[in-house]
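Notebook, student rotation project (T.W.).
Task set for the rotation: take a protein with a known small-molecule partner, predict the structure of the complex, and write up what can be learned from the model alone. Partner molecule chosen: zinc ion. Sequence and SMILES entered below by T.W., checked by me.
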Amino acid sequence: MKTTLLTDLTVADICDGFVYNEFEGKGLFGWGGKLVIQPEYQRNYIYADGKRDVAVVDSLLKGYPLGLIYFVKTERGTYEVLDGQQRITSFGRFVKDKFSVKDANGMEQYFSGLAADLQEKILSAKLTIYVCEGEDSEIKNWFKTINIAGVPLNEQELLNAIYSGPFVSAAKATFSNSKNAKMQMWKSYVKGNENRQDILRTALEWVSKGNVTGYMSAHRHDETIDELKTYFETVIDWVDGVFNGTEDEMCGLEWGRLYEAYHNNGYVPEEVWTRVKELYADEFVKNRRGIFEYILGGETEPRLLELRVFEPKETKPVYARQTKEAEEHGHSNCPLCAIGPAANRTRIYKFNEMDADHVTAWSKGGATDISNCQMLCKTHNRAKGNK
Ligand SMILES: [Zn+2]
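Predicted structure of the complex:
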């Protein structure tokens, strides 16, 4: 790989022909059309937060360097931004009056409203740019290595870089596009930020059953994303159909796995949602995120709900009462041992040899308060728990 250092290009040179696409939320071209600012393997523009974009402009106004920028020279003689597109898009948007910064007096100023000398200071700022030439694979590997400045790429952003091509482009147009009309609905169920590729990540995990790298590699040259999109929408439609509403805790559940496990079961959405509401109101349910799988699975696994358990301040008095009574009557303080075979019938267990048990199980309407608590020896408690 060959690298050349350029130190004479200015902000004005790069902003020549700068195009920012509002719809896709990214800077497209600059440097008189020779420069592709956001090639497909790059992450979306994430500096438009009124802080990081403003910081770029402040640096230019103060005469600070913007740091190293890397371009790749393509075979066609054009250039792609390998590192620096967030910074370039920020100053490009500023020069095009897309956002304002506060001046020394705290007044919001757009570029066109700045004093001529300040405009000139920005436009004439020189950039430090490395231009690299080499094989695709060389450059992408190197891209992984130099991924050090600013916000590090996450795993999916790196995979998009490594497997860039028509499949990634099409996938991003659907799953990384905040203008997608379905995005808000999807985000009721899928956690994360589409700009950071979190929605795409989840869609890939679902369709590939967790083998995202293998799936991207196999589909890299596909022109369409039909399977990925259809599968994702099938899962979402299924969830949307089974549950008659949404709760915050539904966001980020493993819906792909739940779909595979339960989509052949029949559910009555009204009844399902009534149960969701009942369990939300149940103060013994500690893990609300578990409610959905608990219901889908036919309410057979209460452990998903992480039900409140008895605490020592409740179990110690129960132990004391049971033990006192057992000693008075000359039988075991474990009520099941007391009526069992001779060996343990009169055995008095220590506190730490016993466990708390719900006399009536929670799933059968039993409360988690002291009136429903009894102490059993560990053996009997385990045996009861397995039934
Ligand atoms: Zn026992």
